[in-house]
Amino acid sequence: MESETIISDQFYTAKSAVRTDSLTNKIFNSQSTSSKAFVHRPASKLGLSIVVGTFALMIAGAFSVYHLQEDFEAFQMERINSSWGLPFLIIATLLFFYQTGVFLYNSYLYLGYKAIPSVSDDLLPTCTVIVPAYNEGKLVYNTLLSLAESDYPAHKIQLLAIDDGSKDDTWYWMQEAKKKLGDRVTIFQQPKNQGKRHALYRGFNLGTGEIFVTVDSDSIVKKDTLRNLVSPFMVNEKCGAVAGNVQVLNNEKAILPKMLNVSFVMSFEFMRSAESRVGSVLCTPGALAAYRKDAVFNCLPEWINQTFMGQPSDIGEDRAMTNMILKQGLHVLFQRNAVVLTNVPEDYKGLYKMFIRWSRSNVRENLAMAKFVFKNFRKESKVGARLLFLNQFFKIAMTYPFLLFMFFFIAVHPALFLSSTFLGILILSTFSMIFYAKRYNLSESFWAYSYSVFYTFSLFWIAPYAIATASKRGWLTRGL
Predict the structure, then answer these.
(1) Closest CA to 341 of 279, 260, 274, 233
(2) Where in the cell is it found (predicted)?
(3) Is residue 335 within 8 Å of 116, Cβ to Cβ?
């Protein structure tokens, strides 16, 4: 059953009086990232043992590298004197200096990044918030309540929730949210499961706002998130899309979310800040993103009918939309002050399936980006966007050569491989650790090392597998 959307100012006023005890406040207080929260939180025995074990491995690796110097020198000479070793070494050296240059460039961009402050209420645009949901259960209820409690003028916001043919009680919880929020939310039910892209497509066509905001149905927003997210559109007329700042909601429930919490801060707050400086954020995340309505409708037919190798695209709808908006010559920005907390997988199976989906989308959309990034797709400087693309391209292109070298290294010199890998993790992950410690706190930052060890030894196969199976369809995590 479809109900009509009518925004009630009176209802908004009544609800605002009790906001101090709202769901959003409770969740964000419990998930606080302040230093005090982390200092006084007792570490679990398992978590502490993992962190300590990680450091033991890295220190052992460093000592092993020191004691095996002669073996390393012999292996290096062996490589140089082989027919394939010298070319590989030259390529690896060039890529190392290239990656170092890219890192320094991104660091320079990050240091100059500043989030755009919220504009005043009278300048805020009308906004349609679309929440697609599939088998999310009560999570969608919490999401809708957090959105309804946003500090955003009630007469300027339209909230749409779309059940994509769920097989659980998602529709029930949408109805419960409807009962609680009344005319402030409109709920829809797809006749059958068609995929997230089609649920969003329905929302786009029903939306009346100047700005479209998409929010995943297992996410919670802060009160000021929406106004911060859409403010760049009012300041920059060339802004076509804005990416939100995604943090982990369930980081207290399991070890993997703890690791991902640190990883997300690095990938969002560092990388997307740098990308935003050149107006070329490569992906507006499904958890929280905003789009200018005109930009969406300029590419909507192409987006909904997108195919890859003759098959309809049922993944990567966020990255595809970002690409198509960049291709229009518009800017895609990042708002660090627009925070959303989202649930991430808590077990290995859920995590690798999520990463496979992301990696396949990355392969597909890098191919799509290659078709326009070296053309005159925007009037402003295109150097930053091209450097970001090349960095992604080289990572994909060198996946198999480095994988083969890794297997060769393990087979010939396993001790050298293990010791150099642990030392490398110690060195390279220190930046992530320091970045998180500076932005938030020290105690949780050490998960950066554990995550790197975990990824290196248990998820290294994701990228090569995703490249080989890039044409495969399927969301993968929907049945979990």
Answers:
(1) 260
(2) Cell membrane
(3) yes
